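Whiteboard transcription, Tuesday session. T.W. wrote the C-alpha cells on the left side:
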C-alpha cells in the first residue's frame, strides 16, 4: 500500500512552506514518526514526521521549492500490497505532532556553513554558492548582507548589493527580491488589517523619569538572576491592570457571528525585529508573572526569534501586542493592528525634554505612546482613558512597584 504525505495545515493562517531539508532519500527505509522533512513557514520551521513505516517511494518537491498546504510532497510504500486498483494513494495523518526545528539549519558544502533558512533562500535566488561566502556574523554565520555582497561583488562594508538584470535601459541595475515567507505574510496581513478595520491612532506623552530610576535600581537584582532588565517588563506590568479595567482593548471582533469577544486572559505579543522580518512571540499569562520572569521570557523569546527557532506555540494566542522602536529612534509612529486583535501599543524613544511642572520648566525623561485601535470595537474616549491609565501607572512609582513586585 502506498501513502501520500501532504503538507499539513500547520494553523495560524499558514498556507505554504518552503521545503528546507529532506532528512530521507528515495528508496530509503523509514519508520513511523521518523522526521521526514524540515519545512520553513512564514512563522516557524517545523519537522514533518512519517505517518507510516515503509520505504520512501517518491519525493515530489525539491529542497528550496514552495509547497502549498494539502499538496503531496512525498510518497511512502509500506510493502503491504499494490494499493487500490484505481492507482490512487491513501493519506493518513501522522500520530505525532509536528516538531519545531531544533536549531538553525547548517548547510553542508565544502565546509559546514552556518546560515538561517532565509539567508540560504536569498543565496539560491541570487545564484550564490553559499559555501563560498565568508560569514561576518557570530561564529562565522553567513548573513543576508554577506550573500548580497557576494552576489554584487561588493567589497566595502555596508555597501548596497545590486544584481545586474535584463532591462530596457542599458546599464540599469536592479535587485529582485521575491515576496515570500515572512515578508509575504507581513504584506498580506498589513493590507488586510488596514482594509478591514477602522484604525485610529491616539498619541500621548509619558514622563519616564521615575521609571528610568526604578529600572536602574533593579538592574543589579536582575543580573544576579541571569536576566537583562529592559523597560518592557515594566510596561507590561503597567499595561495588564489597564487591560483589566478596559476589557475592550483585550478583545477580538467576530464579524461573522456578530460578537465582540472579551478575553479574560492576558497574552502579550512582543513585536520583534529579525533578519527574516517582523515576528511576534507571545508572553502567555503575563498577569501571573513577576518582573524578572517577564524579563527572562522576553529575552528568551527574542533570542529564539532571531535564531529562527520559534515554535508555533511561541507565536500563537496573543490578545494584545506591543511594538517598541525606542532603541532605533524617531519621535512616534502609527503601528498597524496585529489581527485578529483590536489594538496595539507603540513604544518610542525615551529622551530628555523640557516639561512644565508646577509652573517651572524642568528637564525630564519622556516618551510618546501610540495606541492604534479598531474604532468599530471601541471609541476614542475609551482608548484615551486606557492610555491615561497606563501612563498613570508608569509615572506613579508606588503604584508601579505594587505591580512589578
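and on the right, the sequence the group agreed on:
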Amino acid at each position: 500500500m502506498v501513502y501520500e504525505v501532504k503538507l499539513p495545515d500547520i494553523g495560524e493562517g499558514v498556507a505554504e512552506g518552503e521545503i528546507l531539508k529532506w532528512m530521507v532519500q528515495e528508496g530509503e527505509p523509514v519508520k513511523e514518526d521518523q522526521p521526514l522533512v524540515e519545512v520553513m513557514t512564514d512563522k516557524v520551521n517545523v519537522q514533518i514526521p512519517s505517518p507510516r513505516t515503509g520505504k520512501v517511494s517518491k519525493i515530489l518537491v525539491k529542497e528550496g521549492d514552495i509547497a502549498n498546504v494539502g499538496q503531496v510532497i512525498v510518497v511512502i510504500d509500506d510493502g503491504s500490497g499494490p494499493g487500490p486498483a484505481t492507482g490512487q494513494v491513501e493519506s493518513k495523518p501522522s500520530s505525532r505532532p509536528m516538531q519545531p526545528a531544533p536549531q538553525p539549519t547548517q548547510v553542508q558544502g565544502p565546509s559546514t556553513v552556518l546560515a538561517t533558512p532565509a539567508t540560504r533562500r536569498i543565496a539560491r535566488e541570487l545564484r550564490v554558492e553559499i559555501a563560498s561566502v565568508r560569514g561576518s556574523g557570530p561564529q562565522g554565520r553567513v548573513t543576508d548582507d554577506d550573500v548580497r555582497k557576494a552576489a554584487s561583488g561588493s567589497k566595502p562594508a555596508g555597501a548596497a548589493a545590486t544584481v545586474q538584470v535584463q532591462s530596457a535601459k542599458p546599464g540599469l541595475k536592479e535587485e529582485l527580491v521575491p515576496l515570500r515567507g515572512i515578508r509575504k505574510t507581513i504584506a498580506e496581513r498589513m493590507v488586510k488589517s488596514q482594509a478591514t478595520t477602522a484604525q485610529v491612532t491616539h498619541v500621548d506623552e509619558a514622563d519616564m523619569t521615575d521609571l528610568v530610576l526604578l529600572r536602574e535600581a533593579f538592574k543589579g537584582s536582575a543580573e544576579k538572576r541571569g536576566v537583562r532588565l529592559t523597560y518592557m517588563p515594566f510596561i507590561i506590568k503597567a499595561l495588564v491592570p489597564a487591560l483589566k479595567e478596559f476589557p475592550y482593548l483585550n478583545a477580538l471582533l467576530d464579524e461573522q457571528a456578530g460578537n465582540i469577544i472579551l478575553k479574560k486572559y492576558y497574552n502579550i505579543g512582543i513585536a520583534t525585529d529579525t533578519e527574516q522580518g517582523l515576528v511576534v512571540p507571545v508572553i502567555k499569562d503575563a498577569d501571573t508573572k513577576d518582573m524578572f520572569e517577564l524579563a527572562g521570557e522576553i529575552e528568551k523569546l527574542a533570542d529564539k526569534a532571531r535564531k529562527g527557532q520559534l515554535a508555533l506555540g511561541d507565536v500563537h494566542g496573543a490578545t494584545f501586542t506591543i511594538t517598541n522602536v525606542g532603541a532605533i529612534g524617531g519621535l512616534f509612529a502609527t503601528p498597524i493592528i496585529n489581527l485578529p486583535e483590536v489594538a496595539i501599543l507603540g513604544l518610542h524613544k525615551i529622551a530628555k525634554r523640557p516639561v512644565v511642572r508646577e509652573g517651572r520648566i524642568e528637564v525630564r525623561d519622556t516618551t510618546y505612546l501610540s495606541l492604534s485601535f479598531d474604532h468599530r470595537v471601541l471609541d476614542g474616549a475609551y482608548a484615551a482613558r486606557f492610555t491615561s491609565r497606563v501612563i498613570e501607572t508608569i509615572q506613579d512609582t508606588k503604584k508601579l512597584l505594587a505591580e512589578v513586585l
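Someone added at the bottom: The two ends are 61 Å apart (CA to CA).
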